[in-house]
Design goal:
Layout (H helix, E strand, L loop, with lengths): L4 E5 L6 H14 L6 E5 L5 H8 L4 E5 L16 H6 L2 E6 L2 H7 L3 H14 L2 E6 L3 H5 L3 H13 L11 E4 L13 H19 L8 E3 L5 H8 L6 E4 L6 H10 L5
Parallel strand pairs: 1-2, 1-8, 2-3, 3-4, 4-5, 5-6, 6-7
Length: 252
């Protein structure tokens, strides 16, 4: 049975004092023997938060990494650098990267390959826009985005891959896919992985992201193919994030 995974995406939020207070509150609320909880924080604060998480059950993650190795790539962050800072996870292909910064499916796929080679677990985000959803293209879009990764990902990466379904229309809007709709897409993703990986697909965690809140977390996580969440705004409020962790049965 797959363990639930709850990953916090702080996005471009935080500050030294705010990070300290939030991380301390989360550490206080998450038991030492809790299952998988990850804090994905902005690059400048990885060292600060990583130091606070040492010795705890909570893992550190980044929000992006480069498709390039070290070299003359001003402003980029190489996957190996993240590992040196203590990161175990990295979010790749988030819709805000795709929409605001023009990342393509091929770029995301190249980033996944580099992340895996460095020893990171990539949380690969896929999801459709509201226009695509209205046009009945949700599964087509998700397939295209995920296939680009699977086409180049080495077989040894199967054990590290995590997929997050994030409908673009739900991110930061307060709207969320219904548990039934989210499960339908997660089941489709599971089927796609099964065609590629066979029985290994059963071990790939599938997360839901898109306005997950304490009020809807339990219903979402109860679905058989929703293995946790990638949490945005609610991860900036310790009480809300801890309630979502509790909904994922991570507090025991």
């Amino acid at each position: 049975m797959r363990k639930k995974l709850i990953a916090a995406n702080w996005k471009m939020n935080g500050g030294l004092v705010a990070n300290r207070d939030l991380t301390q509150a989360i550490l206080k609320g998450v038991p030492e023997n809790a299952s998988s909880v990850v804090l994905c924080v902005p690059f400048p604060y990885l060292a600060q938060v990583g130091a606070m998480l040492q010795g705890s059950s909570i893992a550190l993650g980044a929000q992006n990494s480069s498709e390039y190795g070290s070299g003359a790539y001003t402003g980029e962050v190489e996957a190996g650098m993240l590992v040196e800072l203590g990161c175990s996870y990295v979010i790749l292909g988030h819709s805000e990267r795709r929409v605001l910064f023009g990342e393509t499916d091929d770029q995301v796929a190249a980033k996944v390959v580099k992340a895996l080679a460095a020893g990171l677990r990539p949380i690969v985000c896929v999801g459709e826009s509201e226009l695509e959803r209205a046009g009945g293209k949700t599964k087509e879009v998700v397939e295209r985005q995920l296939e680009a990764v699977l086409d180049v990902m080495p077989d040894v990466g199967r054990a590290s891959l995590i997929v997050a379904y994030e409908p673009v229309w739900a991110i930061g809007t307060g709207r969320s896919a219904s548990p039934e709709d989210a499960q339908e897409v997660h089941l489709h993703i599971r089927g796609l992985l099964q065609r590629r990986f066979g029985t290994d697909a059963r071990g790939v965690p599938l997360l839901y992201g898109g306005s997950v809140k304490p009020a809807n977390a339990s219903a979402l996580f109860a679905k058989p193919d929703i293995d946790g969440g990638l949490i945005g705004g609610a991860s900036l409020v310790a009480g809300d994030f801890l309630a979502i962790c509790a909904a994922g049965d991570l507090m025991n």
